[in-house]
Amino acid sequence: xxxxxxxxxxxxxxxxxxxxxxxxxxxxxxxxxxxxxxxxxxxxxxxxxxxxxxxxxxxxxxxxxxxxxxxxxxxxxxxxxxxxxxxxxxxxxxxxxxxxxxxxxxxxxxxxxxxxxxxxxxxxxxxxxxxxxxxxxxxxxxxxxxxxxxxxxxxxxxxxxxxxxxxxxxxxxxxxxxxxxxxxxxxxxxxxxxxxxxxxxxxxxxxxxxxxxxxxxxxx
Length: 220
Known about the structure:
Elements lengths: L9 E6 L4 H12 L3 E8 L10 E5 L13 E4 L5 H4 L2 H21 L4 E5 L11 H14 L5 E6 L3 E2 L11 H13 L10 E2 H11 L5 E6 H4 L2
Parallel strand pairs: 1-2, 1-4, 2-3, 4-5, 5-6, 6-9, 7-8
């Protein structure tokens, strides 16, 4: 799953550990013998204890200095509806993720992973896609040694178990995925959150330069 560890192992930060992809990332990082420390940045303390895990309850608008780390995983995300408007959505999906990236770089991180969106594009006429693209561009400009960007299609997973509101389109897609997925182009098929996390866990420790992983590749 990961590159050879140093004598102490890899130390990573994770933002968004209570979400669908973030939760899968957390499980993978804790299970990885090459990872010795996971620093989870959350707004509320809601993570079960683990010997490798340190939970930091933070204000993403005023992050403290992070412990020394080697890499960071950005999985913060919401919807415009759930956030309560465009400004609130941008505060999470752009501002908070970028703040973590900057704090991670200051703490020594040389590689970073991002959960983006299928149609991310800073020049998109669609606000959601434009914000996602602007974040990608901002991270590219930071010149990490390695940047891995996952662009999943519609995410599948049990949001109710996470205490998140159900998303009607996702519920419909989960029911129809068995029949529809084989008929759709690979990049447009609904994708389980675990597959997105697996791709980031595999690629980030090895990354050099910018690597964009489309949804179809994550499902192979």
